[in-house]
Known about the structure:
Layout: E1 2-4, H1 5-9, E2 12-13, H2 16-32, E3 37-40, E4 46-47, H3 49-63, H4 67-70, E5 71-74, H5 78-94
Parallel strand pairs: 1-3, 2-4, 3-5
Amino acid sequence: MTIQMSSYAGDFAENKDVARALRVEKIMPALAKGEIVILDFEIVTGATQSFIHALISDAIRMYGDDVFDLLQFQDCSLTVEQVINIVADYMQESL
Length: 95
């Protein structure tokens, strides 16, 4: 499954409620089935840490490092990639 993040977040991903809805309604059910989830950030120029945290933290908490075998990120700007790495590193350290 590919999720076009710009369809939900526009060009700047900051709404935690949107991120939470994506996590609950799409990401976690797909991961539970063992499906690959591609988060495509094309057009998204930036994202807040709180958005990315709301989007992926539960998946990391539940599946640990193995989640990144199924949860993939595509077409990330350098800014978005850095925020994802910060959140992922923080979550992995807290496990």
